[in-house]
Amino acid sequence: MKQLIVAIASVTALGISAPAFSSAGGSCHFHGTKPAAEATVASCAAQRKDALVTSGKIDGAWKAVKQDKVEQVDGKKGKEWKVSFKDPAARDKAKETLYMFFTVPGNFIAANFTGQ
After folding, report:
1. Which of 42, 47, 64, 65 is buried deepest, with most CB atoms within 10 A?
2. Are 97 and 65 in contact (CB under 8 A)?
């Protein structure tokens, strides 16, 4: 009986602590080759943008910027999702548009201001 209680307590503790190991954007990790829905990619892009703001990799003003476009493009390794966020109020016009790239199943590839 004592072993059963210890086993149940251990399983419960592992179940409760698992979310502590996930990172920002952790829910946007996909396996397989099934194409992600446009809405899924849009949601993952918003999460990734917020994570970039939080980590200080992009300016905090990007937090309020809404998506401009979600489209599939031909990348170096085949089809990719390209999500753009446009900030017309950006002081540096070279950084007016933030581009994010995702695999067809929805995994993050990269973010930049060039769109390449």
Report:
1. 65
2. no
Cβ proximity of 85 and 63 under 8 Å: no
Instruction: Determine contact, residues 48/58, Cβ cutoff 8 Å.
Output: no
Cα–Cα distances in angstroms (integers) from residue 56 to residues 52, 63, 78, in the given order: 6, 11, 31
Strands 78-86 and 108-112, by their bridges, are unpaired
Q: Whole-angstrom Cα distance, residue 82 to residue 110?
A: 10
The SS3 call for residue 50 is: helix
* Cβ neighbours, 10 Å, residue 47: 16
pLDDT of residue 68: 92
C-beta of residue 102 within 8 angstroms of C-beta of residue 81: yes
| Predicted local confidence at residue 9, as pLDDT | 54
Residues of the chain with pLDDT under 70: 1-26
